[in-house]
Amino acid sequence: MQQSDNVVEEIKSKLDITTLVAEYTELKKAGRNFKALCPFHKEKSPSFMISPEKQIAYCFGCQKGGDIFALVMETEHIGFPEAVQYLAEKTGVEYTASKKKFVKKEEKENYYDVIQHAVEFFEENLKTSAEAKEYLLKRGISKDTIKKFHIGYAKDSYDHLWKVFREKHGYETELLHKVGLLGGDSSKYFDKFRSRVMFPIYNATGNAIGFGGRILGAGEPKYLNTADTPIYNKSQVLFGLDKAKEHIKEQDYAIVVEGYTDVTSSVQHGVNNVVATSGTAMTKGQIKLLQRYTSNIYLFFDNDKAGFQATVRNGEVA
Q1: pLDDT class of 307 with cuts at 50, 70, 90
Q2: 143-160 b/e with 16+ CB inside 10 Å = b?
Q3: Fewer beta carbons below 10 Å: N end or C end of the chain?
Q4: What is the full DSSP assignment across 67-124?
Q5: Omega before 200 cis (within 30°)?
Q6: Which one-letter DSSP state was computed for residue 218?
Q7: d(CA 273, CA 89)
């Protein structure tokens, strides 16, 4: 329990309550405090008061409030352990609830850093690849959407990323392998993603944690995802949730589709409450993620036998 308490206090020291509340509603100065429209219920006049001094907030309309953990529990519809984990990821304080102990914060930050550098690396590659840009435009994905989702390109090379990341960023080969950017083993490493359009995958708090790569031209597999790493678990992630979660809460339903381009195309056409499973099978972990924001799910898979069967299976899981 002592370690858990330490985590809570460290999170509180790093996250001001006004910063958190500002993610959900617009703040206005009110003397030494702030006021805002309540994020818990709809209202026309602000009755939600935030005290930076006491680090608490309270709504005089619905009588809900508390510290940053209470606010996250209420807005994200999760329990206290999940709120600790949620805010730990947001603030860089790493904590594994099931083991009640710290995971090395510096190590986790390294994982996030290398994946973010990879996002930028693949984005730069896309700028010089006529083939990849042509593929995306043929799929109807606009330049603005490419930029919004940070879509990139992995060159057809076995060591392009490996060389650049060692020489430019000083990353060790073991780290690159651990976060899923390199395949193989100590006898022979190689760039895992080659000749692929790259879709970065983010967790719900907005950290890039992995990739889905769509091959250009012939080859298998058509789509290649990052394997499980210390920061990425496919069964616990939904593509696009970082951008869709507020829209899902506002509209009180989520649209679940199969692939990355299904999400990007939908968002491009104004449908913002959409996420993808990166495959047809949904997991209980993904359902629990969506339950933070809504209890209503619409399943949109391919209009064929496999898509129908997937819809039935996923409906049963939900």
Answers
A1: confident
A2: eebbeebbbbbbbeeeee
A3: N
A4: SHHHHHHHHHT--HHHHHHHHHHHHT--EETTTTEE--HHHHHHHHHHHHHHHHHHHH
A5: no
A6: S
A7: 23
